[in-house]
C-alpha cells in the first residue's frame, strides 16, 4: 500500500510539471479520488506551498506564479536510484564530464535529510564493481545533447570532425542514433560528404551546428547494430579470417559483433575481423571450445604458437 506522503509528493511533482490539471485528472494519475486530492492539496498548503485552484467546473490546480520548488524532493527509492545511476555512469565512462557527475552527486547529498544522506554516503563509499573503471576522452556535453536532439527531431547537422589520423573535415550528417559502447560515445547516420552510412566518435567532434535539412531514418534501422558492425570493421593493421567449426548460434553468443563479423559457412562460421595486435586475437581464439582454421594472416599462426608455448611453460612450472 502506498504511503499517503508519497502520494502528496507525487501530487507536488504533477503540479510542477502540468499546471492546470483538474481534480479528476489528478485523482486518475494518483490512483485515488477527488476528495482525497483536495486533502493532499490542503497538506501542501499547510507546508507553505501555495497551490491555487481555478474556479468553475473545469478549473484546475497550479502552483502560484513565481513560486520556486525546493531544490530536491526524493523518496528513499528515488534517491537511491539517482545515486546508483551517477556512480554507475562514472564507472562505465558514460558521464560526459567527470566534474559534472561529481558535482551532481555532491548537490544531491547536500540537500538530502541526514536520515537519507548517511545511508547513501555509505553506499557510495562501499559499493564495489566487478568491472574495471572505464576511462576515456569524454565528449563535450553540448555536442552530445545537440546530436541526440537532432536525431530525435530528424534534423541534419553540420559537424567539424577530427579523424584518428588528425585530419579535420567539415561534413553534414543525418544522425540516426547515438550509442554508448565500452566507455565511448558514437553517432551513426548518413554522411553527406561520403554519401554513405558512417559512424563517428563523438569525442572527436569539435562542434555541431543545426542544418537546414530533414531526414527519416531507414525503416528498421538499428543504431546499436550499425555501430557494432562498424567497430568490427575498423581500419586496424591486420585483417583476420578464421573458419570456426562450431554451431553459428553458439559462436555468436561467445563473440560479440563489436569484435568480429560472423557469417555461416558450411557447418561452421566464418569470422572476419580487424586487429591492431594479433596476440589479443590469439587469446580470443584459444578461449573458444571449437576447432578452427586460420585463413589469414599467417602471422596469426605465429602469435597462436607463441601463446601455446607460454601456456605450456606455465603448465610445466
Automatic annotation (TrEMBL):
Residues 143-208 form the WYL domain. InterPro entries: CBASS_pafABC_assoc_protein, HTH_11, PafC-like, WCX_dom, WH-like_DNA-bd_sf, WH_DNA-bd_sf, WYL_dom. Residues 237-312 form the WCX domain. This is YafY family transcriptional regulator. It holds the Pfam family WYL. PANTHER family: PROTEIN PAFB, PTHR34580. It comes from Amycolatopsis acidiphila. Residues 7-62 form the Helix-turn-helix type domain.
Amino acid at each position: 500500500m502506498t504511503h499517503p506522503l508519497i502520494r502528496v509528493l507525487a501530487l507536488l511533482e504533477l503540479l510542477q510539471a502540468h499546471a492546470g490539471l483538474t481534480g479528476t485528472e489528478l485523482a486518475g494519475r494518483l490512483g485515488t479520488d477527488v476528495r482525497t486530492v483536495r486533502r493532499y492539496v490542503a497538506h501542501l498548503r499547510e507546508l507553505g506551498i501555495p497551490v491555487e485552484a481555478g474556479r468553475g467546473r473545469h478549473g484546475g490546480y497550479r502552483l502560484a506564479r513565481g513560486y520556486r520548488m525546493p531544490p530536491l524532493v526524493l523518496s528513499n527509492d528515488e534517491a537511491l536510484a539517482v545515486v546508483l545511476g551517477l556512480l554507475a555512469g562514472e564507472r562505465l565512462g558514460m558521464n560526459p564530464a567527470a566534474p559534472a557527475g561529481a558535482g551532481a552527486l555532491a548537490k544531491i547529498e547536500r540537500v538530502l535529510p541526514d536520515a537519507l544522506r548517511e545511508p547513501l554516503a555509505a553506499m557510495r563509499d562501499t559499493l564495489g564493481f566487478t568491472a574495471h573503471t572505464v576511462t576515456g576522452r569524454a565528449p563535450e556535453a553540448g555536442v552530445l545533447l545537440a546530436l541526440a536532439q537532432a536525431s530525435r527531431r530528424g534534423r541534419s547537422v553540420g559537424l567539424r570532425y577530427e579523424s584518428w589520423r588528425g585530419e579535420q573535415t567539415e561534413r553534414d550528417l543525418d544522425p540516426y542514433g547515438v550509442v554508448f559502447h565500452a566507455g565511448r560515445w558514437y553517432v551513426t547516420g548518413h554522411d553527406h560528404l561520403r554519401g554513405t552510412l558512417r559512424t563517428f566518435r563523438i569525442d572527436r567532434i569539435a562542434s555541431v551546428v543545426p542544418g537546414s535539412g530533414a531526414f527519416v531514418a531507414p525503416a528498421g534501422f538499428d543504431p546499436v547494430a550499425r555501430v557494432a558492425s562498424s567497430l568490427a570493421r575498423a581500419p586496424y593493421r591486420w585483417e583476420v579470417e578464421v573458419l570456426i567449426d562450431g554451431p553459428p548460434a553458439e559462436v555468436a553468443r561467445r563473440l560479440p559483433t563489436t569484435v568480429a563479423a560472423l557469417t555461416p559457412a558450411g557447418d561452421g562460421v566464418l569470422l572476419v575481423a580487424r586487429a591492431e595486435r594479433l596476440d589479443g586475437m590469439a587469446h580470443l581464439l584459444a578461449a573458444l571450445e571449437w576447432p578452427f582454421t586460420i585463413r589469414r594472416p599467417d602471422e596469426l599462426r605465429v602469435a597462436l604458437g607463441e601463446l601455446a608455448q607460454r601456456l605450456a611453460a606455465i603448465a610445466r612450472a
